[in-house]
Glucosylceramidase (Granulicella pectinivorans), 464 residues
Amino acid sequence: MNPARIVFAVLSLSAFALPAAAQQATVWLTTPDRTSLLAEQPQRLAFAKSKAPGILVDDKTKFQTMDGFGYALTGGSAQLMMKMSPAARTALIQELFGNGPADVGTSYLRVTVGASDMNDHVYTYDDMPDGETDPDLKHFSLAPDEADVIPVLKEILKVTPKIKILASPWTAPSWMKDNNNAKGGSLKHEYYGAYATYWVKYLLGMQAAGIPIDALTPQNEPENPKNTPSMVVTSEQEADFIGNYLGPALEKAGLHTKIISFDHNCDNPNYSIDLLKNPAAAKYTNGSGYHLYRGEITAMTTTHNAFPNKNLYFTEQMVIARKNDTGLQLAKPVARLIIGAPQNWSRNVLLWNLAADPQNGPHTASGGCPICTGAITLDGDKITRNIAFYTASQASKFVPPGSVRIASTGPADALPHVAFLTPKKKHVLIVSNTTDQVSTFVFGAKGKSATATLPAGAVATYVW
């Protein structure tokens, strides 16, 4: 046998015979040299009886239901999309969110409540002149989003009406904060009630615009004061806000938007765990959100083990080409995020962010992100599909909402993998070859298996 090849086996324990219609698997491949970009391979892989040992896939062992895969639709992303010609924008939205043969089925979006650091300027929905406040929110208005974010979301919802949308703020209005500044600082306790009302007004306003918000996080990266905008919120403060203000305000307004706590890095699972120990906060908190700029993805399992009745969400990660990368190096981000997050109980995977221009803008002038490449680069109607696009699409195209993660166990150091069972009972296996060698492995279901070859650094999705 060629020593440059790595051999594993993938079998299913669920039954002993494949139905006649499922004797072959389709293969969708992305390679670093871009010779294959999320492309269905011409040759299907045939199954045969096999008892080969190795990785075991068991569709009788089920874990969490998946809500979707997607991106953050920042204000900057929406602004760039609105600069496209209507025909080009319509075609792009169909490709991103549709379920046709050429579409990638993006099924989850994160939007920013007010500006993020990927906007061309800072704003909230109730900005006041220095020295003035508006505790009754008489000046609240969604007008800043009416030129781009709201129109783009409406177009997306026409293509996929059931897409899930998560809303996250980067800051409260400056007049509510102890430093009276968009950057850093904390929410004054005297304005917790007003800020809960601000949320209610936002959710009802979006609802009136035909945009249902499925979930929210009270604060993006609550431990990061360095972005412009940003706001610091401790676990104790967030527990107090959720349990005594935000949760009751949503309940009183008849809103069923899920509350997801934390929304920050995997280096501090204690934030979520401590918050959920607070009975008032836990009553209203659906689960916890994580990023992976620091820490290990297994922090999500740590949180799950502490509170198995609460949900986990992967709410942000930037995936960009590294400085010295040659080709499309997506094997490791797919392994870390698309495979790693669901393997650690996440119901979704969201990447940062959907679109940027060729200069990685727009972003705020000071405290914005000058290296945040979009999943796509938009230069007018010209579209460049980047590493994050293929990273997310390798799952979103094949794993629709309502799919369930199923067991896939065995050696995974060289070939990380995750498996799902779709609502139509199709098996989906995503495999990432993180080595610099060609890998040959065997995969299968119901007592039968097929042999596949995966180029070095490549990712494949197998569907049967």
